[in-house]
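Q: Convert this sequence to structure tokens.
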Amino acid sequence: MSEGGSNATDTYFYLFSLGLLPSQILTVGVMYPLMINRQASIGRRAARRLASFVPVLAVLVTATGIVWLATRGRVTADLVPLLVLSAVNSALQSMIWSRGVAAESTGESQWFAAVALPANTLAVIALLFPWGNEKQALTVMLLALVVGNAGYLGFMVRRRIGSDAVSRLPEQSTGAQAAWWYLARAGTGYGGLAVLSSLAVLLPPSALTVLAVVTKLVGSVASVFVNAVLPTLVHADTDSPCAARRYMRLTGVALLVLGLSGVVATTFFPGSRLLLTVAVATWLVAAATAAAAQRVAFRFLAAKSSIVTLLVLPIVVLASVATATEGELNLTNLVAAQALVDAATAAFLLAALRDKVMTIGARTATAMLVAIWIASTVGA
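A:
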């Protein structure tokens, strides 16, 4: 795929992200907290129904994304195999996420930490071979993802990964109001981020690819530092948040050093964009901190304690839409907007968790990202 970012790569990354949206909202945002929260719980029957519903919704959301791309003139006949495989892959990923997240609720983090490993390994192997053009390479890569995900799902089914966690749930759900709070928060959060990603379609070709690569980088770092470790510290049987708080602080310091090193390193490259680099570095810290704080909050705070975070995303989304309407949308302020969501969310949750040191850090990151957003918009 030597041609770099293009309409084909934009399409792949956009649909891949959309396909994960139902899992992020319903599986991670609703089912998981209800499996570990001390004040509310999801019942076995409801958990199983949700696991069956999410894959169907993932396909429908992917189809909606295809329609949006078509209205922007981005869909061509040679992209049809890629579109079909994207829909199939979204369903497989949803089923894997349901089992992995369920296992996480009992402290078994390894299965969800490796959620993309088999598929990505096959995809990398597929890309080692020379293909006629970029679209062929992307199609073969997606086919490899489908095969890898299907294989991992089969393995999880045979090993009953997540099944025992669901079996230990109560027969009936408790705290129905909590489920609606979690749904509102997750829907607003992840849905708003999908809107921000959709705005990238309005930018020149390859911008969506760059945004997707940055998003994957940030998500991967958060997964390594948070998702692979924190579930062993915060799960359905955890009684104290102290160990998780210590780990959050260590993670914050490590990522701060990593981000600063990246900013310094990129200044030596010709054509480097300082504001964009600083925004990405700040996002690394903010995303990991928000993810960690959210997991701790899921266990130890009431569902309605996150009500303030519902106000963050609509403000950011409306500001970004207004920027796009005025023709001032660019990659830097779009990255800053997405990072701002994580930073502000982290600040609110850490304040609720009464972690003063981390709250100050999150508020500082929020202020920096607001400044970057303003500077990149005014200077556009």
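The mean pLDDT is 88.
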